[in-house]
Design a protein that fits this description.
This protein has 578 residues and is of the alpha/beta class. The chain is built from 20 helices and ten strands. The chain has a six-stranded mixed sheet. A four-stranded antiparallel sheet has the order 2-1-4-5, with no helix packed on it. Helix 6 packs antiparallel against helix 7, helix 7 packs parallel to helix 11 and helix 19 packs across helix 20.
Length: 578
């Protein structure tokens, strides 16, 4: 409940709509409670006395009360909808902003499918709770108290029937809620699993079709879908028990009231109109119990969703800016001082161990190493995508932890190993690097990345739509667009994480020549091809997370067996330096 109260703080300007909605429910309830009293007078006075004028007057009064109740009910629906959907939008926005602050280590704790569910389905549950709970939450206690009071006022002896039947209904509803409460958490986790399979299947649809694994993916989806179905059936199998319990108790109360009330009419202790009005209050009181039970069920489900949303909002970002950050990166020098790193605190082995490396501003450094040698891990410590577990990483002579995160990352341009483009045009994607860049600047970056070669052949040029995730361009074209985007940042440090692997050798040579013309920029190139790094100022060879050797191309070729082996396999076919 504490988590739900906390989320209610996100109502903000919609708190007013919520309060107005609650007030309208009170007014509507008051009008409805007047109607049975008017109806009792209409029967006992007007019908019994055959007073047509009295009947018309009371009928008009009942009609006015019903009309006013309808108007206030419609107004309530308007204000409640504004409050519910405005609240949901603010919660989604808060979650999304929080996720943007996460470090990679934070994101490792949540599956992307689960985050999608928390941003959509769980928020919808809370919105439905406002729409479904506000009215009965305000209305039911008022109806219950006033209905019981008026029924005791009309006939205290008949009202004692409530004292017997109401606790029975309350006990049944308590048992139902207690049983259903933990099931809602499992239900949302089943939704997570369905979203995960759908996301994977759609993201990898080309691989699925290429390997003819459609039936396998269908089977995976069928399993999680059936699990969701079974969980939903079990949950709502118990949740709907409140309806038969309510009906059983209500009809029992009606039968008892008609039995004893009929006897009282025959003995002259009760009038027909009083019994009719009393039955109206019976229905209102029982309906209030029913609405209260629905409130508990909706609150129980919303508590499970509120807990999941609170987990996202309460997750503390692993990386934050210091209170008094360094405001500017002076140059592109990079230093690793006895740096070790592991992705999880309880991991048995380090991904990087005892790394010492100095890169001067403006140098071009190549990094080679086998798969799993932690090349990507090493460069991710520079823009502080992760923090070193041990040791210090310095940029521009300062510890990266001393910089404001935005300042540091603005000074570092990185072309990721996995190229990422977004839905939209080429221009929109390139302007991630420089939002205000004009066409001339964009084309200059494209020429440096050799992206102009294919963009000029496209009918819309920079305004060509790339489709979702850049599906309308090839892997090599994606890489070149990502390089152009990084160049537009004009960073002090440029990192290329195997970013020309899908580009032919001739095009790579042109890109390398264009990069060589960038002065005052530190360039770090991770590559598999030795031709990509052999002309750099320094080549670093990583092996099992440690620096095996570092030097120029000629130094390593003369003295390092691993570099000799790589060179021989790629350049000499294994005939020399093998």
């Amino acid at each position: 409940m504490k988590e739900l109260k906390r989320l209610l703080s996100y109502l903000g300007p919609y708190r007013r709509d919520l309060l107005i909605g609650a007030l309208l429910v009170l007014v509507e309830t008051a009008f409805e409670l007047v109607i049975p009293v008017l109806m009792a007078d209409l029967i006992d006075v007007g019908v019994e006395g055959r007073d047509l004028h009295y009947i018309v007057v009371k009928g008009v009064q009942m009609g006015v009360c019903a009309l006013l109740a309808l108007i206030t009910g419609l107004l309530y629906a308007r204000f409640a909808a504004r409050a519910a959907y405005g609240w949901g939008a603010r919660i989604r926005e808060a979650q999304y902003e929080r996720v943007q602050d996460y470090a990679f280590s934070n994101l490792d704790r949540f599956e992307s499918s689960s985050l999608v569910t928390r941003l959509t389905s769980d928020v919808t549950v809370l919105q439905n709770a406002i729409n479904g709970v506000l009215r009965p939450l305000v209305r039911s206690p008022v109806m219950l108290v006033m209905g019981l009071g008026l029924s005791f006022w009309m006939n205290a002896r008949l009202a004692l029937i409530f004292v017997v039947t109401a606790p029975i209904l309350g006990l049944i509803l308590f048992l139902v809620v207690r049983k259903v409460a933990p099931m809602y958490g499992r239900l949302q986790k089943s939704v997570d699993k369905v979203n995960n399979v759908v996301q994977e299947g759609l993201t990898a649809i080309r691989a699925v079709k290429a390997f003819v694994r459609g039936e396998y993916e269908e089977e995976k989806f069928r399993e999680v879908n059936e699990e969701l179905m079974a969980t939903s059936q079990r949950t709502f199998h118990f949740a709907v028990l409140n309806l038969p319990a309510f009906q059983f108790t209500m009809y029992t109360a009606v039968v008892l009231i008609l039995w004893f009330g009929g006897g009282m009419i025959l003995s002259g202790g009760l009038q027909v109109g009083e019994l009719t009005g009393f039955l109206s209050y019976v229905l209102q009181v029982m309906n209030s119990f029913m609405m209260i039970s629905n409130v508990f069920l909706l609150l129980t489900r919303s508590l499970a969703s509120a807990h999941r949303i609170a987990e996202v909002l309460d997750e503390e970002p692993a990386l934050t800016s210091p209170k008094e950050p360094v405001g500017e990166v002076p140059d592109g020098s990079v230093a690793f001082e006895n740096v070790s790193f592991k992705y999880h605190a309880d991991a048995k082995e380090y991904a990087l161990s005892g790394v010492n490396l100095n890169i001067k501003a403006g140098q071009t450094v190549g990094i080679l190493g086998g798969t799993g040698s932690a090349k990507t891990t090493l460069v991710q410590l520079i823009p502080r995508l992760y923090d070193a577990t041990e040791g210090v990483v310095k940029v521009g002579g300062n510890d990266v932890k001393d910089y404001d995160l935005t300042t540091l990352r603005d000074a570092v341009g990185i072309v990721l190993q996995k190229n990422v483009l977004f839905s939209g045009t080429v221009r929109e994607n390139l302007q991630w690097g420089a939002p205000d860049a004009d066409d001339e600047t964009l084309w200059a970056a494209c020429r440096a990345a050799c992206a102009d070669e294919f963009l000029e052949r496209m009918p819309n040029g920079l305004d060509t739509d790339l489709g979702q995730g850049g599906v309308n361009v090839s892997g090599g074209q994606k890489q070149r667009l990502c390089i152009a985007r990084a160049l537009l940042k004009h960073p002090k440090i440029l990192i290329f994480d195997d970013s020309t692997s899908a580009v032919d050798t001739a095009t790579e040579g042109k890109i390398r020549s264009a990069l060589a013309g960038l002065t005052g920029v530190t360039k770090i190139i991770i590559a598999q091809r030795i031709t990509s790094v052999m002309h750099t100022d320094l080549i670093v060879i990583l092996e099992d997370g440690r620096i095996h050797a570092a030097g120029t191309h000629q130094e390593l070729l003369d003295h390092d067996p691993i570099y000799q082996e790589i060179y021989a396999s790629q350049m000499k076919g294994g005939e020399e330096h093998g």
